[in-house]
Amino acid sequence: MKKIALYPGTFDPITNGHYDIIERALKLFDEVIVAVAISTDKKPMFTLQERINMTKEAVKNLKNVKVLGFDNLTVELARTHNATVLIRGLRAVSDFEYELQLGYLNNSLDDKIETVYLMPKLQHAFISSSIVRNLLKFNAKTEHLVPKEVQEIITEMKSCTLQ
After folding, report:
1. 35-54 residue pLDDT tens
2. Is 39 annotated as catalytic?
C-alpha cells in the first residue's frame, strides 16, 4: 500500500525551509500532498490561489508531490486523500509546544493518522513565511529565503509590497 503524507500549512509564501521539509518527506513517503490552507484568520498577504500557484511552481520538479488548497479540518482532508501521516516542520523549541498540541488534537480526531515532525536543514531553520512577508513590505531582499520560482512570481506581482 502506498504511504501518503499530507503537509498542511498556509505557505504565505512557501519558503526554502518548507521546500526542504518536502524534499525530506519524499525520502520517507511514496507521495507528499502539500495542502495550502485558506487561513482567513491569519490574514495572508497572498490569496489562496496565489499561494497554490507559488507552491506548484516551487515543487514542479519534484516527483510524487501534489499541491491543493483546502478549507476544512486537516484530518478530514487527509482521509479524503488516503493520507495516514501529517508532516509538520519544527524550526525551534518554540514551535514544539504548539505542534505537539496540534498533533495530539489531530490524533484525537482520527487515531489512524500519525504526525511526523521534520526539521529543516540548519541553514533554513530561521526562515519563516512571516519573516519573508515582513521583508517584502519593505522591498527587502528575499531571494535567499524562497525558491527561485517563488521569487520570480513575487517580483512580477509587485503588489505584495503595497499591503
Report:
1. 999 988 889 999 999 999 99
2. no
